[in-house]
Design goal:
The protein has about 400 residues and is an alpha/beta fold. The protein has 16 helices and 14 strands. The radius of gyration is 21 Å and the shape is globular. The mean pLDDT is about 95.
């Protein structure tokens, strides 16, 4: 991607996060409200959003629909956040729409995430997609994607995450996320008996039809091969199948064959993804407690024991998450990687020493920026198993580093 676009995107990131939809709505109005030119499915939740979106999109693609998909964050390129039928927006189209927006509204008003969503809406409208599957970024109420009236909405799960923005209880977080619901059909993977009444009441207030995953859908999914690894993906797949059932009831035609093919052919980077063999290296963006617990389920049911490398952003409870992971791995190393939201290296070193003493384990620290990756790989035997987990920013940087060596 051209250096001037990279520079502009870095400037946008400095604008931070600004709750509110007025700015993006005003800009969309200047361009004739492209977000109204296609149907949509809108998915929010703490974990599982990207996987559920990917399952839904792939089933629609298999059924022959021209399907837009937006995901965040990205692993390789910002362009992977904007896809049609599994193909990223081209560098040329991204640059053209970036320049169009820049000329019309400038860079000062919008956040980085808003900017990407604006490009996505313009691109999907230009290409006349039949339907777009939209993953929220942060929350729901003030999320830049929350400018559509979707045919189907979904809330995957609710767990403690981003409390500074969303609230310090599960109910408060749910209330923020469920603001994407504006009628239509609604599906959820939530099974918390205290939260379900809150969600149901909101659905009643906006005349939305409420559905939740049941045993029949789960049994159906368990009989089919899934393209995404992990026990937790069965619930994401079940939720996606429920969404497809609602779309069929609204006039779409997604056959059982397309559903099965979509579930099997779905792929998303950084979710229990094997990126290297001999030694086996798996990457997984388990960046909060719910994600770590899903990863632990994978580790407990796997016949091999893994060496774990864990890195998270400074707004995450490092000690708690590391402590959940440690009993299920051969070794644990805390990873320092490049981002301005990372724990300082000195903090990681102190934390590793403290945890080692407290938990009776030899926890080390790895600076990803300073290692020679090829030599690091050669320090393990070909029969070893390694998992790189935590922040998707870490996963992205590790995968980029792999590209620099002969794999």
């Amino acid at each position: 991607m051209d250096s001037f676009i990279i520079y502009d995107l870095e400037l946008l990131q400095k604008n931070g996060i600004h709750p509110g939809l007025d700015t993006i709505l005003n800009t969309l109005h200047l361009f004739g409200n492209p977000q109204r030119s296609f149907q949509s499915v809108h998915i929010a939740g703490t974990n599982g959003k990207g996987s559920t979106c990917t399952f839904v999109a792939q089933m629609l693609i298999e059924a022959g629909y021209k399907t837009g998909l937006t995901l965040s964050p990205h692993i390789q390129s910002v362009r992977e956040r904007i896809q049609i039928n599994g193909t990223w927006i081209s560098e040329e189209d991204f640059a053209r729409l970036h320049q169009l927006l820049k000329q019309k509204v400038g860079l000062k008003k919008h956040t980085y995430f808003e900017w990407i969503i604006l490009i996505m809406f313009l691109y999907f409208a230009e290409r006349q997609v039949d339907i777009a599957i939209l993953e929220t970024g942060l929350g729901g109420r003030w999320d830049a994607t929350n400018v559509v009236t979707p045919l189907v909405s979904a809330i995957t799960t609710v767990a403690m995450d981003h409390e500074h923005y969303l609230g310090n209880t599960l109910e408060k977080i749910l209330i923020e996320k469920m603001q994407i619901i504006k009628g239509g059909e609604v599906w959820t993977g939530i099974d918390n008996m205290h939260l379900l009444p809150v969600l149901k009441k909101h659905c009643q207030s906006c005349r939305a039809i409420f559905h939740q995953i049941d045993k029949n859908i789960l049994h159906f999914v368990e009989e089919l091969p899934l393209g995404l690894e992990g026990e937790h993906q069965k619930r994401n797949a079940a939720l996606a199948v429920g969404i497809i059932h609602s779309l069929n009831s609204l006039g779409f035609a997604i056959s059982s064959q397309a559903i099965a093919a979509g579930l099997q052919n779905a792929h998303i980077e950084g979710r229990l993804e094997t990126v290297y063999n001999k030694p086996q290296i798996v990457v997984d963006g388990a960046h909060n407690e719910e994600g770590i617990l899903s990863l632990v389920t994978f580790l407990k049911t796997n016949p091999y024991k893994f060496h774990a490398f864990f890195g998270c952003l400074s707004d995450r409870p490092l000690s708690h998450l590391a402590g959940l992971l440690l009993p299920h791995v051969l070794s644990l190393t805390l990873v320092y990687f490049e981002t301005n939201r990372m724990y300082p290296l000195e903090t990681l070193q102190k934390e590793a020493k403290r945890l080692s003493q407290e938990l009776g384990a030899d926890i080390k620290v790895l600076n990803l920026q300073e290692i020679y990756l090829k030599k690091w790989l050669e320090s393990y035997s070909q029969s070893d198993h390694i998992i790189i987990t935590g922040s998707l920013y870490l996963v992205a940087q590790f995968k980029q580093a792999l590209k620099t060596i002969n794999v």
